[in-house]
Amino acid sequence: MSDFWSWYIITIVVINIVGCWGLLYFTRNLEGEQADDGTTGHEYDGIKEYNNPLPRWWLYMFYITIVYSIGYLVVYPGLGNYKGTFGWTSAGQHAEEVAAAKKEFGPIFAKYAKLDVEELVKDKKAVTMGQRIFANTCFACHGSDARGAAGYPNLTDNDWLYDATPDGIKLSITNGRNGMMPPQGAILGDDLKNVVGYVMALSGRDAGTADVDAGKAKYEQVCFVCHQSDGTGNPMLGAPNLTDMVWLYGGSAGQIEKSIKDGRTGVMPAHKDILTAEQIHLVTGYIYSLSAE
Ligand code: HEC
Ligand code: HEC
Predict the structure, then answer these.
(1) What pTM, to 2 d.p., does this model score?
(2) d(CA 270, ligand 2 centre) in Å
(3) Strand pairing partners for 178?
(4) What is the CATH number of domain 185-265?
(5) What confidence tens digit (pLDDT) does each residue in 210-266 have?
(6) DSSP 3-state assignment of 49?
(7) What number of other Cβ atoms are within 10 A of residue 209's Cβ?
(8) CA–centroid distance for 65 within its chain
(9) Overall fold of domain 92-178+269-292
């Protein structure tokens, strides 16, 4: 921190402390407006207020907090660049805690790292550890119960975009995944509605007024490369199965039309620099356990 900002902070802190003290000192004996009956003279709904000074013990508590804050600023950092006589830093405390956690959990991580994921899920403690990692790292996108949300896959069902083996799940977490559905609106033109109708029909629903045969013909020209000709999808590309009722972005005609017209690009970030290999192993176990039961 530059000298300017250091002094800036010191000045604000000192002005605050002196200001608090001044406020207490100068108001300690102030008499406000006083009516003849010893009240402030204000009345609201028949309630009056006595005009008594603050009790002494109450006032002294404020003075004690000021003395405490000065003592605190001597031993801990608080005045700009001054480090305090204890030499405490938040980074130092963090480093100490990380070192302590490594010492405590290192051997446990190492033990679990040797087990296959299929073995790992039989160990309740390992699954709980994986769940904690999930709760810290993944819940913002996949939900605290791992059931996901629109655009974020549900990880508890047996429906997978990508490879569902333990190695495949681990790969999803380690390197991340990019779902790439390019916008098809321009290519389909007037046939967009018909293709939407065909996709509705693939999951056994009413296609409305759409010309399903025309939609099928377009599908077989454009979509089959990724979603397969029978619509069951392709885990290599993360192209979803369109024949079931599990939808990543929603299964209404409007949502399907939006997916097709504008495309979709879901991104699962790589976690290899966020978690250690041992942590990824444990969280893979947790994810695997959710649908393995
Ligand atoms: C920033 C949001 C985000 C975070 C954080 C995140 N994910 Fe994901 N994850 C996604 C999205 C989006 C997808 C779907 C990618 C796609 O559409 O192709 C996904 C896909 C996956 C898949 C593949 C699912 C399938 O059906 O094949 C797995 C497994 C997964 N995530 C696990 C995790 C785990 C475990 C964590 C925490 C370590 C995590 N994710 C953190 C957004 C996230
Ligand atoms: C280049 C490969 C590719 C092509 C071509 C493609 N898709 Fe997709 N599609 C994908 C991928 C990958 C996703 C998932 C995107 C994501 O994970 O964000 C997807 C998502 C979808 C979804 C959303 C599914 C859901 O569960 O919400 C629909 C609907 C869809 N595609 C229909 C079509 C139709 C119809 C066509 C042809 C007009 C088509 N796609 C062409 C790859 C493709």
Answers:
(1) 0.76
(2) 22
(3) 267
(4) 1.10.760.10
(5) 999 999 999 999 999 999 999 999 999 999 999 999 999 999 999 999 999 999 999
(6) strand
(7) 8
(8) 37
(9) Cytochrome Bc1 Complex; Chain D, domain 2 (1.10.760)
Q: DSSP characters for 61-95? A: HHHHHHHHHHHHHHHSS-STT---TT---HHHHHH
Helix or strand holding residue 157 (H, E): none
- pLDDT single digits (tens) 116-134: 999 999 999 999 999 999 9
Q: Residue 165 pLDDT > 80, yes or no?
A: yes
Give me ligand 1 centre to Cα 152, in Å: 7
Do the domains 92-178+269-292 and 185-265 sit in the same CATH topology, yes or no? yes
Packing angle between helix 56-75 and helix 3-27, nearest 10 degrees?
160
200 lines ligand 1 (CB under 6 A): no
To test the ligand 2 pocket, which listed residue (172, 264, 265, 267) has its Cβ within 8 A of the most ligand atoms?
264
Delimit the domains of the chain by residue range: 3-75, 92-178+269-292, 185-265
